[in-house]
Amino acid sequence: MPPRPRRAGARRGSISPELQSAIRAEAERLAAMPDPVLTTKAVGDLFAAIDRELDRVAKVRLKAVRELRRGGWSYDRIAAATGLSKGRVAQLVKDDRQPASVRAAGRTST
User: Fold this and answer.
1) Residue 17 region, left (φ>0) first, then alpha (ψ -120 to 50), else beta?
2) The model's pTM
3) pLDDT, tens digit, for every residue of 4-14?
4) Distance of CA 89 to CAs 6, 42, 101, Å?
5) Which element (helix H / strand E) includes 99?
6) CA 62, 27, 25: angle at the middle one, nearest 5?
7) What letter would DSSP give residue 107?
8) Who's near 58: CB < 8 A, 6+ residues apart?
9) Which of these, 7, 15, 91, 92, is most buried using a 10 Å CB contact count?
10) pLDDT in tens, 22-49
């Protein structure tokens, strides 16, 4: 199977070699399962677990955007510096995983 196209903005080396190795090892473990039904269920379980862990990573980005906004950075400046769109920056600032006071502070100026 050919590799899927990378997501926009994905850069080579953006995950650690250890994480890349762990993901490959897990894929090999799943591929070696003899029962296709159990394999399918196990992959679904893995995706659900990864989604939970990705939320932890997303919170790191939310905190970083919050710090930039607290530092007086505009949405435009954050977007230009990070490669995110201005709209995505606005979404992150308003994300419900942040305290309401932080979301309100993000609405000051653009």
Assistant:
1) alpha
2) 0.65
3) 655 665 667 68
4) 21, 35, 17
5) none
6) 90
7) T
8) 97
9) 92
10) 999 999 999 999 999 999 999 999 999 9
Give the per-residue pLDDT at 1: 62
Backbone angles phi, psi at 37, to 5 degrees: -70, -45
Report phi then psi at 94, rounded to 5: -90, 5
Token pair of 109, please? 């100026």
Is residue 60 predicted with pLDDT exceeding 50?
A: yes
DSSP 19-88: HHHHHHHHHHHHHT-S-HHHHHHHHHHHHHHHHHHHHHHHHHHHHHHHHHHHTT--HHHHHHHHS--HHH
- Tokens 């309401």 belong to which residue? 100
At residue 15, the pLDDT reads 86
**How do residues 80-110 score in pLDDT, each as one tens digit?**
999 999 999 999 998 877 555 544 554 544 4
Nearest to 27 by CA among 12, 16, 43: 43
